[in-house]
Specification:
The protein is α/β, with parallel strands linked by helices. The chain contains 8 helices and 8 strands; from the N terminus they run βαβαβαβαβαβαβαβα. Strand 2, helix 2 and strand 3 form a beta-alpha-beta unit. The structure holds pyridoxal-5'-phosphate (PLP).
Length: about 220
C-alpha cells in the first residue's frame, strides 16, 4: 500500500516520502529554487503549490517548458484575482464570495474551469483565513452559479497537529457530499502531520520541508 516513492539519494536529493498511491502529493515549493522544482519534476512530480503570487509567476516563467499543475495555497488579495485566475490550475484558499466571483469572472474562456477548494477555519481561530464550519453549506451553494469555477473540495490548515481537527474536516467533507456536491479533494496534512491527516481521510497532502528540506 505504501508505494509511492519520490527521491534520489545524494547531496541534492529529495527525501523519501512513502504515501499510499490514492493520495495526491502536492509539492509545496515556496521559497524553493526553480532548479529544485525542475529536479523534482524530473522525478515525476507534477503538482506544485505556491503561496506568494509574485514568486510563483517568476517561477512559472522560468519553468514554462514543463507541464506543471500549479496550485495557489496562500492568502488571496482581491486585486490579485485576475492573475490567479489566469496562471493557476487550482486555488485552494478560497474563503470569500467576492473573491470567488472575481476568480470566476477572470478565468479565461479558453482554459478549463479553475479548480478550487474552500478553506475552512477548522479550529475557529481568530484572525485566521477560512470560513467557519457552520457557514460551509451556504458558501458552497453560493458557488454553484459560478461556471468558470469547479469546486473540488476542502482545504484546512489546523492550529497544530491535531487528529480531531482532521476528523472534523473529514466529517464536513462527507456531509457536503451527502448534500449532493461531487467532490474528490480533502486537502490536509503538511510535513509535520501528514500521517495523521491521511489516517483521518485526507486525499491530498501538501509537503514542503519534508520533501525539499528547509526553505532557502
Ligand atoms: C508552507 C505550506 C505548506 C507546507 O508546509 P511544510 O511544513 O513545509 O510541509 C502546506 N500548506 C500550506 C498552506 C503552506 O502555506
Amino acid at each position: 500500500m505504501w508505494l509511492r516513492k519520490l527521491k534520489q539519494r545524494g547531496q541534492n536529493g529529495f527525501n523519501v516520502i512513502k504515501i499510499p498511491s490514492r493520495i495526491t502529493l502536492l509539492a509545496v515549493s515556496k521559497q524553493q529554487t526553480p532548479d529544485k522544482i525542475r529536479a523534482l519534476y524530473e522525478q515525476g512530480q507534477r503538482a506544485f503549490g505556491e503561496n506568494y503570487l509574485q514568486e510563483a509567476l517568476e517561477k512559472q516563467t522560468l519553468l514554462q517548458d514543463l507541464n506543471i499543475e500549479w496550485h495557489f495555497i496562500g492568502h488571496i488579495q482581491s486585486n490579485k484575482t485576475k492573475l490567479l485566475a489566469e496562471h493557476f490550475s487550482w486555488v485552494q484558499s478560497v474563503d470569500r464570495l467576492d473573491i470567488a466571483r472575481k476568480l470566476d469572472r477572470y478565468r479565461p474562456a479558453h482554459l478549463s474551469p479553475l479548480n478550487i477548494c474552500i478553506q475552512i477555519n477548522i479550529d475557529h481561530e481568530e484572525n485566521k483565513s477560512g470560513i467557519f464550519a457552520e457557514d460551509l453549506l451556504s458558501f458552497a451553494t453560493a458557488l454553484l452559479p459560478l461556471k468558470h469555477l469547479k469546486l473540488r473540495g476542502l482545504m484546512i490548515i489546523p492550529e497544530k497537529n491535531s487528529l480531531s481537527a482532521f476528523k472534523k474536516a473529514a466529517d464536513l467533507y462527507q456531509q457536503l457530499q451527502e448534500k449532493g456536491f461531487v467532490l474528490d479533494t480533502l486537502s490536509m496534512g503538511m510535513s509535520d502531520d501528514y500521517k495523521e491527516a491521511i489516517a483521518a481521510g485526507s486525499t491530498m497532502i501538501r509537503l514542503g520541508t519534508a520533501l525539499f528540506g528547509k526553505r532557502d
